[in-house]
Hints:
By secondary structure, this protein is α+β, with helices and mostly antiparallel strands. The protein is built from 1 helix and 2 strands. It has one domain (13-74). A two-stranded antiparallel sheet has the order 1-2. The longest helix has 38 residues, at 37-74. The protein is elongated and about 70 Å long. Zinc ion binds next to loops.
Amino acid sequence: MDFEEPAGRPEAATIEHLVDSTFGGIRSSKHRRLAHAACNHARNEFRMQAERQFKQWIAQRQASAKTLNNKKTDV
Ligand SMILES: [Zn+2]
């Protein structure tokens, strides 16, 4: 862990938020931990990718449900 400035290097110390404040997480020191900048970034990228895939999956399910309903009303 590297606490020297500047903090843009992969091994630089950053604060990782375990409970995202956008989900109503309380801004408490319990919900923070030290993370390398690279690890923190990778974790955020992974989470955002998972959220995108989840939204796509929901949209596909909704689209296929609509198709099924349309077929029913056609009969
Ligand atoms: Zn790390």
